[in-house]
């Protein structure tokens, strides 16, 4: 396969970091082991995502700053690119690794051996999937099976593992233990794992405070960490050939977020709205390959601006800045590819004095 020069360099950096991460995981020495694993896993995926985007001819630089994109921006771009085949569950795995690495690098958390294993094992599986999808080569060409993440304490059911971790945190918070710092480090790990279920994943001290209060009040885990109820793992194969993936727990009830005093405070997670609604009007039109007027017409046809999952208006003093989510982009991309854009343009042309009756099926403005 003929590679672009920059893609080749980035791919080699990605593989080097993955080799270093697996070597660190299997090291018999514990000093700095978890830190090294998480830092190199995150770096390996950032390099691999950028290599994949560059190979597909997609820019990985911010046009305003002239600097390469950050990890989350790369994840979004890869999810949007259908040929790379990164689904939302896979994106969640990447975000969780990034969130765990973020706390490990900028503050501290405590990742148990089993949680470290499931993330390392899932990382190897996903790295191999992406490497084969984009570059048509297996990870085994670069990483012998003898150095894949292995553990003498293989993972149990994820729900049981999370319950054990929650019980351990509650024990550490008991009066007289003088282990609050360790309990909070473990809380940060579980909060970081919520990245598997959505992009708003940066762990704040306020979130840790609320969880700590909820645990001390005796609240059960589903109330304190409702998003983790949606998480499960699926494994294929056995021994060194096992493949592990994080998947959605279909049996879990949907999570509801409400501003209600009857809801336990620990269950309410602060959401970074700027991370969720990150596309400007110009960004949305550019990413869809539409002019701004045609983008507005499509927004009107789909009722995007009236959908709270798609549209949010930030207010800064006298400024009002409309922003759009990935959900808006996906809905509009599907409509662009499947509906008659000319009919939508005629019906919703923002510059027209009179609008015609929309003839597009299921038109929300008809």
Description:
The chain has 14 helices and four strands. The chain is mainly α and 366 residues long. It has two domains: 5-267, no CATH class; 274-348, no CATH class. The strands form two sheets. It has a two-stranded antiparallel sheet with strand order 1-2. Strands 3-4 form a two-stranded antiparallel ribbon. Helix 4 packs across helix 5 (113-135) and helix 6 (158-172) packs antiparallel against helix 7. It is globular. The termini are far apart. The model is unreliable at 256-261 (pLDDT under 50).
Short description:
Residues 12-156 form the DUF3644 domain. This protein is mainly α. It is 51% helix and 7% strand.
Shape, principal axes of CA atoms: globular
The first-to-last residue Cα distance is 50 Å
Helix-strand pattern, N to C?
Answer: HHHHHHHHHEEHHHEEHH
Total of helices: 14
* Biggest sheet: strand arrangement: 1-2
Major β-sheet annotation:
2 strands, antiparallel
Kindly give the count of domains.
Answer: 2
What are the SSEs and their pairings?
Blueprint: H1 5-25, H2 33-55, H3 71-80, H4 88-106, H5 113-135, H6 158-172, H7 180-193, H8 205-216, H9 221-224, E1 231-236, E2 243-248, H10 273-276, H11 281-288, H12 292-302, E3 311-316, E4 319-324, H13 326-338, H14 341-348
Antiparallel strand pairs: 1-2, 3-4
Helix pairs in contact: 1-2, 1-5, 2-3, 2-4, 2-5, 3-4, 4-5, 4-7, 6-7, 7-8, 11-12, 12-14
């Amino acid at each position: 396969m003929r590679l672009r020069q920059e893609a080749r360099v980035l791919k080699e950096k990605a593989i080097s970091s993955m080799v270093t991460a697996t070597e660190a995981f299997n090291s018999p020495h514990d000093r700095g082991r978890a830190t090294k694993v998480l830092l190199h896993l995150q770096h390996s995926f950032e390099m691999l995502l950028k290599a994949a985007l560059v190979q597909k001819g997609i820019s990985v630089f911010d046009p305003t700053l002239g600097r390469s994109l950050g990890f989350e921006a790369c994840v979004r771009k890869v999810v949007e690119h259908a040929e790379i085949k990164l689904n939302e569950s896979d994106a969640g795995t990447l975000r969780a690794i990034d969130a765990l690495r973020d706390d490990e690098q900028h503050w501290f958390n405590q990742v148990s051996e089993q949680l470290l294993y499931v993330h390392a094992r899932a990382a190897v599986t996903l790295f191999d999937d992406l490497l084969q999808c984009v570059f048509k080569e297996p990870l085994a060409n670069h990483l012998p099976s003898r150095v894949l993440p292995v553990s003498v304490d293989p993972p149990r059911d994820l729900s049981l593992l999370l319950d054990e971790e929650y019980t351990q945190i509650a024990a550490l918070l008991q009066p007289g233990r003088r282990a609050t710092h360790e309990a909070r480090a473990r809380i940060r790990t579980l909060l970081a794992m919520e990245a598997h279920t959505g992009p708003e994943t940066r762990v704040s001290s306020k979130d840790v405070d609320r969880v700590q209060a909820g645990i001390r009040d005796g609240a059960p885990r589903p109330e304190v960490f409702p998003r983790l109820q949606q998480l499960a793992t699926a494994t294929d194969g056995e021994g060194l050939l096992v493949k592990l993936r994080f998947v959605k727990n279909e049996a879990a009830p949907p999570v509801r977020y409400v501003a209600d005093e009857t809801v336990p405070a620990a269950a309410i997670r602060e959401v970074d709205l700027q991370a969720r609604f990150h596309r400007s009007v110009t960004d949305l039109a550019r990413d869809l390959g539409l002019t701004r007027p045609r983008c507005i017409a499509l927004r009107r046809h789909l009722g995007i601006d009236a959908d709270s999952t798609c549209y949010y208006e930030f207010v800064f003093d006298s400024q009002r800045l409309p922003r759009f989510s990935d959900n808006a982009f996906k809905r509009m991309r599907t409509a662009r590819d499947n509906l008659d854009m000319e009919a939508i343009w005629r019906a919703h042309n923002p510059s027209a004095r009179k609008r015609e009756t929309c003839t597009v099926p299921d038109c929300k403005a008809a």
